[in-house]
Amino acid sequence: MVLTGGICIGFAPIGLRLGLGELGPQGIAFWRYAFAAPLLLGLVFLIERRAPRPPNRFVLLAGTFFTLDIALWHWGLTLTTVSNATFIVNLGNVSVGFVAWLFLKERPTNIWFVAILLAVAGAAALSLGGEVGGKGDIRGDLLALGAALLVSGYMLCSKLARRRLGGIETIFWLTIVEVCVGGLILLLSGEPRLPATLNGFGVPLFLAVVVQIMGQGLIIAGLGRTPAAIAGVLVVVQPVVAAAISWVLFDEPLTALQAGGAVAILVAVWLSQRGKPVPID
C-alpha cells in the first residue's frame, strides 16, 4: 500500500508543472485538498458505515506538517534548482527511519542501512545527474531542507495517528487540516484564488484523486501496518515515477547517471523490506 501510494505521489510534480498556467503553486495545492475533502468524507461513510471519529492531536500535527512541507517545497523551487530541491526533500523521506528509531523505538535491521545508502545515492544521481536547469540558491536549499524536516514529522505523526483511527478517517482529517492551513497560506501568498477558466480546475481535481486520495490515502493506510523506517524508503520511489512520466510526456530522457540512480532506488526499495525492525523495550 505504501509503495503504491508512493507511485501515485510521483504524479504530483507532473500535475504541478501542467497546472501552473492557470493557478500558482499554492493555489494548486489548496484546490487539491479542497476537492479531495468531500470525496474522502463520502469514502468514510461508504467504508466505515458511520461518521468519522473525532481527530486526535497527532492528526492535527501531521496535517500541519504536510501542508507546510508542500508550501516550502513550492517556494524553494522558485529560488533554487529543481534538482537541488528534489534531492534535499527526499532526504526527509529516508530520515524517517532514524526519527522512528528515536521516538517510536523501532530499530531497523542492518540491511535497512544498506538500503538507505543506496536510496540516498540513487536520489542524488537521479536529481542531480541531468542537465543543469538553473543556478542553486542557498535560500531555496534551506527551504527545501525545512520541507525535508517537515516530511519526517508528518510521517511520524501520521503513524501515531493511525494507532487510534482507521486509515480512511486519518486521511480525511489530515485533508481537512490541510484545507484550513493551505487556505491561509494561499491568502498570504497573494496568488490568484481561482483559475482564469474552469479548465484550470482540471489539474487540482486530478491531483485530488490520484495524489491526495490514492497516494496519501494508501500511504496513511499502509503506515498502520508498516514500520516507519521501511515506509520512508518505499516512498522514495516517487522521483523515479516522476522521471519516467517526464520522459514520456515532455521528451526528457534520462542520462546514464540518472538511469543508474533510478535502478539504485528500486534496489533500495526491495532491500528495505528484507526483514522487520525489532522494537526496543
Automatic annotation (TrEMBL):
EamA domain residues: 1-127, 139-271
Pfam families per UniProt: EamA (PF00892)
UniProt GO cellular component terms: membrane
Keyword Protein transport in annotation: no
Sequence intervals crossing the membrane: 28-46, 58-76, 82-104, 111-130, 142-158, 170-189, 201-221, 228-250, 256-272
Keyword terms of this UniProt record: Membrane, Transmembrane, Transmembrane helix
Protein name in UniProt: EamA domain-containing protein
Organism expressing this protein natively: Hyphomonas chukchiensis
Lineage: Bacteria, Pseudomonadati, Pseudomonadota, Alphaproteobacteria, Hyphomonadales
